[in-house]
Amino acid sequence: MTELLNSSPRTDRANSIDSSRIDTAELGEILLGKWADVRRESRELAAQPRLHKIEGLDYHEHRERTFEQMKYLVEMKGVHRAFPTKFGGAGEHGGNVAAFEELVTADPSLQIKAGVQWGLFGSAVLHLGTEEHHDKWLPSILSLDTPGAFAMTEIGHGSDVASIGTTATWDPATDEFVINTPFRAAWKEYNGNAAKDGVAAVVFAQLVTRGVSHGVHAFYVDIRDPATKEWLPGITTEDDGIKGGLNGIDNGRIAFDNVRIPRTNLLNRYGNVDKDGQYCSPIPTPGRRFFTMLGTLVQGRVSLDGASVAASKIALQIAVRYASERRQFNASSDTDEEVLLDYQRHQRRLFPLLATTYAASFAHEGLLQKFDDVFSGRADTDEDRQDLETLAAGLKPLSTWHVLETLQECREACGGAGFMAENRFTSLRSDLDVYVTFEGDNTVLLQLVAKRLLADYAKEFRNVDFGVLARFAVGQAADLTINKTGLRQVAQFVADTGSAQKAVVALRDESGQRALLTERVQAMVAEVGGALKVAAKLPQDKAAKIFNAHQHELIEAAQAHAELLQWEAFTDGLQQIQDAGTRKVMTWLRDLFGLGLIEKHLSWYLMNGRLSMQRGRTVGDSINDLLAQLRPHALDLVDAFGYTEAHLRAPIATGAEKIRQDEAMDYARTQRASGTAPVDEKTLLLKVKSARKK
Amino acid sequence: MTELLNSSPRTDRANSIDSSRIDTAELGEILLGKWADVRRESRELAAQPRLHKIEGLDYHEHRERTFEQMKYLVEMKGVHRAFPTKFGGAGEHGGNVAAFEELVTADPSLQIKAGVQWGLFGSAVLHLGTEEHHDKWLPSILSLDTPGAFAMTEIGHGSDVASIGTTATWDPATDEFVINTPFRAAWKEYNGNAAKDGVAAVVFAQLVTRGVSHGVHAFYVDIRDPATKEWLPGITTEDDGIKGGLNGIDNGRIAFDNVRIPRTNLLNRYGNVDKDGQYCSPIPTPGRRFFTMLGTLVQGRVSLDGASVAASKIALQIAVRYASERRQFNASSDTDEEVLLDYQRHQRRLFPLLATTYAASFAHEGLLQKFDDVFSGRADTDEDRQDLETLAAGLKPLSTWHVLETLQECREACGGAGFMAENRFTSLRSDLDVYVTFEGDNTVLLQLVAKRLLADYAKEFRNVDFGVLARFAVGQAADLTINKTGLRQVAQFVADTGSAQKAVVALRDESGQRALLTERVQAMVAEVGGALKVAAKLPQDKAAKIFNAHQHELIEAAQAHAELLQWEAFTDGLQQIQDAGTRKVMTWLRDLFGLGLIEKHLSWYLMNGRLSMQRGRTVGDSINDLLAQLRPHALDLVDAFGYTEAHLRAPIATGAEKIRQDEAMDYARTQRASGTAPVDEKTLLLKVKSARKK
Containing H/E element for B687? Predict the structure, then answer.
């Protein structure tokens, strides 16, 4: 990096301010988090060429390859970690997700197909089933002898699972459940393993017995003869064919024409039907029961959050390396061109994304630890589970949108080279595109968060009828029970510090950033909450209308809340850093993240008197100063992510560009030195001009 | 639509405000613009299945198919329009581009491959060559007997064409040019037709004769034996392989190892070398000459602008149709779910994109007419050409970014269905991704616009040394001569109206929007111009540093200027509408576009005292009101684009969703009416509760 440091004006300036250096080893270790060893192990696995995506396979070939890779994962004991020891696992939930996330660097299709088999299909049997089910089905699920689909989503119902149309009706004559798809919109849709590999499925359906519908439950259903691979009677399927990405996965649709299964195939941990058709459940209300069952599946959201962070790191490591070698245009010298990373605009494009990636990484580690606390049983109250749900619902939208933005900005920042499939951006972007709408559509998830915020607000102020608010936040479907603890007590913070009306704060000061970000969440929730109060007393259709008129604001409030959580996680992360120089640079990066959020929402701060016009005008300059300060550390900041060539696999991130640029500059220097190089016509014209003057 | 109108609360409200209806026929005709008949003809061609992209072909198959489609275009006389009548053309430049743009609806690979062959390779021979060249090469270029590459970009130089490394040195011994690639970074890169089909190329190289380098010129070079398809001696190529999209095009790299071509293969319209090696040019300065030569290729940017508008229309027509049928969650009724388009958030996601698409469409029509005026010779002064260049450089970035945003938002708004390749979004997005960086990287183009704005500013105020400003705007490369006319005289407008300091304006008033948008451009340019004044007196490296510190602001100013041009084009477009109802609705849509821009930059208006805090707080509400007003017209607004099923080709836009939803609702109604439907457990619990109370 010496040459860069010497040649860059921005770098010189930053150097004159500070000579701090990053300890990439220490920082890298912190980023690896609690399950550092597991991550290292999984990264080693993901570095193996046999697990890498090959671009340009057709979807049949890609599916075949992915399935073979799945077998290899089994062989390498890469899939058992979360399952009980009696099945060869370790009951380690956090570590399992950490390992799983890293697979995204090999091939997102492999990651998601593994997620379908062991994270959804297998997990449903584990968490919704009971011991008999475990003993019967888990061994062959873990060994991949029984590939299975997770049949929840329907054509007509994506994120609104409570409204699915498939029914499972107990038949007293045979003591069986009859699974039925009553109309086209109730076909199961987008189910991985449904088009080609699956021989069984966990099917979500409305459980009906003795004339009563007890809501959505999960059933284990064989769908194909494992020997002949023929579909079983009553099962009809369709292949989803080619998708925008993830084409290593065989998604498909399934319909059930009165398919009969033993009563005991009901995964009955949270609700059972006895041999007389009598329904009973340890959870008395249908809403709570639904929430509990779906809550066991939160790991999907947790792992998408982590995989998005991993892919963002890969993208930035590639783009920052290239930008530190690639030269274009000569402004400060007549002969040598600038490296891209010295351009302010280029820094503006990449560094805020880098700051957000760090924030998302710290936030994810917190989420993962919370997930592990709950699933290990160490902290497993209803309250803990609800906090986990809300945290996942807030962070997953931010990180999945962030990775798409990052991949796209990096692709554009690398120009035509960024568009070549070999440089990873376009391929990862295609695959990760669907992360923003599956495992809970981001927009719907943010409404779940908003619902929780409104509930907290209602409890805090005791002046809003919560029932009405909850009803409309995401429809009647997700009937959460709410409590006010767990999340950062925004309102409380404001009450404690009394800082709500302070118009002048130090922007590069931790407490200043916290005050601005926190007050915004509090004020936005209070504003929407106030507007919705009137809805409480109105008939349903009129209340819905008022609610709808505030839907956009509500989602914005939820997003502000999740951004605050990321900022807090980043700030907490700084405390772990021992090395003073590293902590200093990382604090600049945190400031860039904080100021980036404030700039993004600057109009809100100005309109609401939280920042004066004068102060507002300094935000952009402060950001520009931070960019210049961070410039000399950019390579260290991406190298700390710890991915190797085997993970990056991008020709533009190998140093090849520097070799080409050096060769070109050497050529030019040799030409100039030779004295035989052609003269530039422009130079001649200048000489003619000056000769005329004499 | 009747059922939708009756069931939607937002619609009811909008209806009570106004019962205007859109005349889609009239509006459609206006959108088709000056070359309506040509567009209709081209759309008919694009509707033919043989020209449609087939998803899932491998890139070899896709290339084959695209090449066959090219032959069909020749057969259908779809490629001659812009060429002289003696070659079977009509010399019709605007119409040619209009027809070309519509091909994007069939397959973007076909559009761009046709663009390479006839818009770049053929056009270079036409515009940079002279009659002898035309007679010799154009017939076989037009017939596709000579597929050719356009070899301008190099690995080491994308947008900075002036700095390319390839040389063409006149050899007095043989009276030939020797084309040479001196180092790896000077390999020609990303050239369509270079990997598989091309037998010739127009090669851009530094022309050297008699020891003087006269800058970049174009040369016609045979690269393969047309019979054997063997590469000619000295030619080395590499296949770029798989790209993020456009895989029907065979992009590749070419290197020249002292390849000899006749002197007369120099395309010599703007610069010639005679048999004594003497260089002469009708354009005295190298900078102007370079600009003039590259200026003939502006049609690439013009047509990408138009193709992006076309693809945005396709995306919105699909997404709005689906959202008007798809139901999800029930808020206002216990039984029926809402259609997506009735949700405020969904309107917020799609309608601003719709408004921007209309603005971009009107702006494109103006650009296309200006292009036709220049290339037809009707208005072909240097000033006209420079205005055209600047206009294209401003609009192409906005529309190419806009189409990516639109495709992505539409894909997400359609959930999992949006991710299926059959529904078009992901496929179009992959193909159009590269539009933002090719034919001039968007960020570089905006700097060209900024340079022009600074020059106008300097001329206006006579207090900035323009030479210095120009030097750093995009490096020394694009050495434009500047004049101050042509673009909207922003500064003049402010001077005329004296409205710069008015803090209160009517946001939904045309002149209010114009004042706000215009003042912002003027103030931003003045601010950067002022900051750069000091740079004029400093040494090159220090001046460069100051310039770099304002690069971001400068690009923002250029973007603001281009947004203003779009707004003006939309506003002008309103004048063409005869039908009062249509004009009223379209005025709302224009207001939504204008207010959307103001909201996007709201912090600027607040910080700079252009809007008060109180006024600022009304912007969001005004937008929400417009969304509700526009809701009943959404389907009409997309239907006016005039694309048919043969262009949309998306299963979710065929009405299938409505059939599914109706079937599901009928099923539920029949169940309720039957009296034998299962009772909901929730209902039972409520009964138990109320019984206990008694």
Answer: helix B681-693
CB contact A36 to B (< 8 Å): no
| Radius of gyration of chain B measured on its C-alpha atoms | 28
Hey, is the C-beta of B436 within 8 angstroms of any chain A C-beta?
yes
Q: What pLDDT is attached to residue A473?
A: 43
What distance in Å separates the CA atoms of residue B126 and residue B104, rounded to the nearest whole number? 24
Do B549 and A344 make contact, defined as CB atoms within 8 angstroms? yes
pLDDT tens string B70-104: 999 999 998 999 999 999 999 999 999 999 999 99
Residues of chain A contacting residue B684, judged by C-beta atoms under 8 Å apart: 212
Q: How far A481 CA sits from the closest chain B CA (Å)?
A: 15
Radius of gyration of chain A (CA): 28
Question: Both tokens of residue A659?
Answer: 């070799």
Query: Which chain A residue shows the shortest CA-CA distance from B432?
Result: A419
CB atoms within 10 A of CB B495: 12
Terminal CA-CA length for chain B: 48
**Of the partner residues A430, A617, A678, the one whose CB lies closest to the CB of residue B212:** A678
What single-letter DSSP state applies at residue A206?
E
Phi, psi of A475 (to 5 degrees): 75, -175
Say yes or no for a CB contact (<8 Å) between B416 and A437: yes
In terms of DSSP H, where are the helices of B152-262?
A: none
Q: Which of A345, A605, A658, A685 to mutate to test the interface with B (most CBs of B within 10 A)?
A: A345
B:52-81 residues touching chain A, CB 8 A cutoff: 55-56, 58-59
Please state, as a whole number, how many other Cβ atoms lie within 10 Å of the Cβ of residue B382. Answer: 13
Three-state DSSP at B485 gives coil
CA dist., res. B519 & res. B617, Å (int): 20
List, for residues B544-583, the tens digit of each pLDDT value. 888 889 999 999 999 999 999 999 999 999 999 999 999 9
CATH topology of domain A150-284: Butyryl-CoA Dehydrogenase, subunit A; domain 2 (2.40.110)
Q: What is the ipTM of this complex?
A: 0.92
Contact with chain B for residue A164, Cβ under 8 A: no
Instruction: For Cα atoms B153, B156, B161, give the angle at the middle one, nearest 5 degrees.
Output: 45
**CB-based contacts of B433: which residues, under 8 Å, 6+ apart?**
A408, A411, A419, A426, B244, B245, B404
CB contact under 8 A, B328 and A159: yes
Instruction: Measure CB to CB from residue B156 to each of A215, A548, A660 and give the nearest one.
Output: A660
Q: Which has the closest alpha carbon to B162: B294, B281, B295?
A: B294
Question: For A452-511, what is each residue's pLDDT tens digit?
Answer: 898 887 776 554 444 444 444 433 233 222 222 334 444 444 444 444 444 345 788 899
**Residue A656 has which token pair?**
């090849």
**Whole-structure pTM value:** 0.93
**B188 - beta bridge partners?**
B154, B254
In angstroms, the separation between the Cα of residue B213 and the nearest Cα of chain A is 5
What is the third-level CATH fold of A1-14+298-676? Butyryl-CoA Dehydrogenase, subunit A; domain 3 (1.20.140)
**Using CB atoms, which residue from A214, A331, A416 is nearest to B472?**
A331
Q: Give the gap in angstroms from C-alpha B571 to the nearest C-alpha of chain A.
A: 26
Nearest CA in chain A to B412: A437
Minimum Cα–Cα distance from A680: chain B residue: B213
* A631/A11 Cα distance (integer angstroms): 6
Q: Which of residues 261-320 of A touch B (CB under 8 A)?
A: 285-287
Res. B500: pLDDT tops 50: no
Q: Domain B491-637 in CATH: superfamily?
A: Butyryl-CoA Dehydrogenase, subunit A, domain 3 (1.20.140.10)
All structural domains of chain A with their residue ranges: 1-14+298-676, 150-284
Residue B372 and residue B93 in contact, taking contact as beta carbons nearer than 8 Å: yes
Judged by CB atoms closer than 8 Å, whether chains meet at B433 and A442 is answered as no
pLDDT in tens, B417-438: 999 999 999 999 999 999 999 9
As given in the structure block, the two tokens for residue A209 are: 């017995």
